[in-house]
Amino acid sequence: MNLTDKLFLKLVWIVTAVVLIVVVALKLVPPPATVPSFLYVLPHLIGGINATCAVLLVLSLIFVRRKNIQAHKVTNIITFVLSAIFLVFYILFHLYVKDTKFGDVDHDGILSATEAAAVGAIRYVYYFILLTHILLAIVVLPLILVSFYRGLNMQIEKHRKIVRWSYPVWLYVAVSGVLVYLMISPYYNF
């Protein structure tokens, strides 16, 4: 491994740690007093970005299997940029909106026994999808960064080895992100 690769790997771990710290801090920091009006469109953009990334990831696989490396690269660059935009929107949204309770029909921030009974066992499905989405989103960030770096630098064998792991996890995170959005969006309090 050359010096550039070593430096990049250190950068990957620094970026991963910073993102994780910021996301955890979002839960601890109180929301600002005023909420910008554009904020309420962010969850819909986030859901749309996740859906677009899922489609682009499938297209990327199709392109590489057809040996259309240029289309594969362009698709992955677009997906990577969209994922970065997603992260910015996610952080911005959750800076202002801390929690939305699944099943909170009256939008009072409290899940009553009646509301919990109304959504029933689907709540557990939602929380399973959400939990796996969150955990795998943490795991996939360094995998994506390393995969992206190796692909751009035409380290084909190293790229293939890591993509065997990063691709299915990234695809799951994108698809589960859409599912989480579709399931929680009726309960947003705006």
TrEMBL record:
Pfam families: DUF420 (PF04238). It comes from the Bacteria. The chain crosses the membrane at residues 7-26, 38-64, 76-97, 124-148, 169-188. The keyword Transmembrane applies. Keywords: Membrane, Transmembrane, Transmembrane helix. InterPro entries: DUF420. PANTHER family: DUF420 DOMAIN-CONTAINING PROTEIN, HYPOTHETICAL MEMBRANE SPANNING PROTEIN. This is Membrane protein YozB. The gene is yozB.
